[in-house]
Recover the amino acids of this structure.
């Protein structure tokens, strides 16, 4: 009977992503609870060495082929389907990431298994598996039982501790020969991040603006504040999509991951995609008129005062404090 | 190009979301529906491609609250044709939606025009599956790339830019026809005045196509829906703007940030 757990290890440019270890830690716990084997799958061009770092898995299955540098979701799904059958797996964990987008959904169709996206918790309840999925930008959670304990789970970054997935144990790596279909989508090249005027990942203070800043002109208000604090302005996705700030200033899933000493969030709702890029900041202060905004879940301090009413008094108070020193 | 853009209205998450009495769905009474950002970008990208490379854009949506407004707005922005698929759609999630779109785009026995390009949001925020594009591409046997931020047609092929993480992006090549999940258009979505939308409502009709929902519509079901309880919630600073500003300065001083 199918019962094992497979994890799709994620890697880009020769580096394993944190989500790999998050899934590995969560998968190990689940496998131990269910008394089933845990296997990690590494798919790529020359990736067996990466597999050796996944010691928490009972076995690491490596599929290598020249055309697998950045394979399209259908190719990865086809390989995983073969591995599900080969290993008699009941569950597959993939990352809710830009890289893996489409893998879980296509696999679920091909393997005829249910697919649950945006998962942030997995628990065993009376012998069956219940997933918690975050919907509506993290504002609503949904508990979803997996019928028969079988399915494809897409795991949100940050849902599980990275450290729990690391292990010094030597991994048992097995190279698996599988036919690789000629992908319809071919990878051409990486495009490195645009070098901006500042590197927001190296700043101690970020004043970050979101949709609540309303207009491009208002960004100068945040710049004034950033200058007083000795930092620079960063932003959430909508501000960059509007063309108000360059991509080099974007914090979040597709943008930069930052960990400044201070992250002052102005008018940012804090969707999971944004939190992914900033939750490691040492001190997070959030200003948002919506008391239910998810940003307050990761912030240390928050206020619902309108940011436009706050900026001037804040500048004045900062200037006063500086003058008093 | 034969462009399609698949649209969907979702609850505006800026508004308060309340869970309904059944504990399994949102309380519809308080919801305000609109296109998601990603849908706005998919629509904009379709219009940009049409303007640059010619062709037609057809907007297709499943019947849903406020969807007529969204389709008329799309028409006012420059879409050539708007199509609404109607039927008993209550239980339709991403996979079932993909099957409905697939049946509409490529009816049995028919073929998609070779220069067809189907654009839609990269992901939906309101669905347990959320990846209609990937499902649809698989059903139609077409190539798919998600999280796309740039599209360059070149005869029968496309070059697309996809985002990874940390500002890193990748360039991919694929043949037409294809399905692309759009994250951001190459330009911010255009604004269209309400008068133009009203004019579109008078001048153009939305085509309606009745569809029957394939079984099973859903493979998993929600046991319980709820608002997250968060342990690490922020300490909220209350008072006038002056008081809050003073408080923030205290916090920063305590952390040696000023």
């Amino acid at each position: 009977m199918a019962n094992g757990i497979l994890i799709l290890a994620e890697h880009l440019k020769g580096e394993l992503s944190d989500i790999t270890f998050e899934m590995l830690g969560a998968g190990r716990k689940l496998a131990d609870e269910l008394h089933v084997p845990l296997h990690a799958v590494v798919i790529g061009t020359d990736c067996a060495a990466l597999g050796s770092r996944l010691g928490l898995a009972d076995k690491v299955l490596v599929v290598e082929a020249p055309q697998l540098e950045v394979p399209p979701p259908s190719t990865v799904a086809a390989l995983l389907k073969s591995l599900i059958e080969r290993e008699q797996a009941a569950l597959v964990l993939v990352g809710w990431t830009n890289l893996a987008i489409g893998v879980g959904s296509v696999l679920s169709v091909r393997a005829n298994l249910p697919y649950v996206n945006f998962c942030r918790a997995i628990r065993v309840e009376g012998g069956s598996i219940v997933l918690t999925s975050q919907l509506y930008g993290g504002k609503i959670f949904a508990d979803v039982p997996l019928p028969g304990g079988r399915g494809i789970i897409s795991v949100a970054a940050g849902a599980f501790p990275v450290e729990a997935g690391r292990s010094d144990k030597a991994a048992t790596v097995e190279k698996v020969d599988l036919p690789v279909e000629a992908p319809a989508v071919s990878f051409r090249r990486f495009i490195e991040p645009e070098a901006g005027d500042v590197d927001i990942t190296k700043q101690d203070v970020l004043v970050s603006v979101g949709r609540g800043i309303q207009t491009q002109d208002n960004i100068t208000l945040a710049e004034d504040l950033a200058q007083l604090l000795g930092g620079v302005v960063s932003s959430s996705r909508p501000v960059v999509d509007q063309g108000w700030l360059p991509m080099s200033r974007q914090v979040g899933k597709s943008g930069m991951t930052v960990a400044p000493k201070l992250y002052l969030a102005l008018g940012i709702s804090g969707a999971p995609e944004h939190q992914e890029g900033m939750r490691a900041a040492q001190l997070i202060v959030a200003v948002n008129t919506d008391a239910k905004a998810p940003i307050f879940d990761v912030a240390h301090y928050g206020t619902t005062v309108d940011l436009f009413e706050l900026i001037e008094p804040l500048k004045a108070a900062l200037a006063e404090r500086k003058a008093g020193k | 190009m034969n462009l399609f853009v698949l649209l969907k209205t979702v609850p505006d998450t800026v508004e308060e979301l309340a869970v309904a009495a059944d504990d399994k769905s949102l309380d519809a009474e308080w919801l305000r529906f609109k296109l998601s950002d990603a849908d706005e970008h998919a629509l904009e990208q379709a219009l940009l491609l049409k303007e640059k490379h010619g062709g037609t854009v057809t907007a297709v949506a499943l019947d849903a609250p406020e969807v007529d407004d969204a389709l008329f707005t799309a028409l006012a922005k420059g879409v050539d044709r708007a199509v609404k698929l109607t039927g008993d759609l209550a239980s339709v999630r991403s996979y079932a939606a993909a099957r409905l779109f697939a049946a509409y785009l490529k009816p049995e026995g028919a073929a998609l025009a070779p220069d067809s390009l189907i654009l839609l949001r990269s992901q939906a925020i309101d669905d347990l599956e959320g990846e209609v594009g990937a499902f649809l591409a698989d059903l139609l046997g077409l190539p798919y790339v998600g999280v796309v931020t740039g599209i360059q047609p070149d005869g029968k092929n496309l070059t697309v830019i996809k985002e990874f993480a940390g500002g890193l992006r990748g360039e991919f090549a694929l043949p037409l026809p294809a399905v692309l999940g759009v994250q951001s258009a190459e330009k911010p979505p255009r604004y269209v005045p309400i008068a133009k939308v009203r004019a579109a409502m008078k001048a153009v009709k939305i085509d309606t196509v009745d569809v029957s929902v394939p079984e099973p519509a859903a493979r998993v079901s929600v046991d319980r829906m709820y608002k997250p309880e968060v342990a690490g919630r922020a300490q909220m600073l209350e008072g006038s703007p002056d008081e809050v500003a003073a408080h923030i300065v205290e916090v920063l001083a305590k952390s040696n940030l000023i």
